From TrEMBL:
InterPro entries reported in the protein's UniProt record: DNA/RNA_pol_sf, RT_RNaseH
Keywords in alphabetical order: Endonuclease, Hydrolase, Nuclease, Nucleotidyltransferase, RNA-directed DNA polymerase, Transferase
Protein name according to UniProt: Reverse transcriptase RNase H-like domain-containing protein
Occurrences of domain Reverse transcriptase RNase H-like (ranges): 2-65
Keyword set includes Glycoprotein: no
Amino acid sequence: MVLIQEDDDRKLHLVAYDGRKLHGAELNYPVHEKELLAIKEAIRTWDRYIDRDRFETTIITDNISL
């Protein structure tokens, strides 16, 4: 998971990154559910940094199956 921020010149800057191992039943999830789990974890982890009232939030995934 990566949190990036775009500046006024449209350049992207790394703010934070994180990740974790899959546990138990998560290992058997289909690929699209694993990707959604990562999105859920990212929102939970970085919610306090995301100001949805003032800025648009975009989620980008590299998984073609989605």
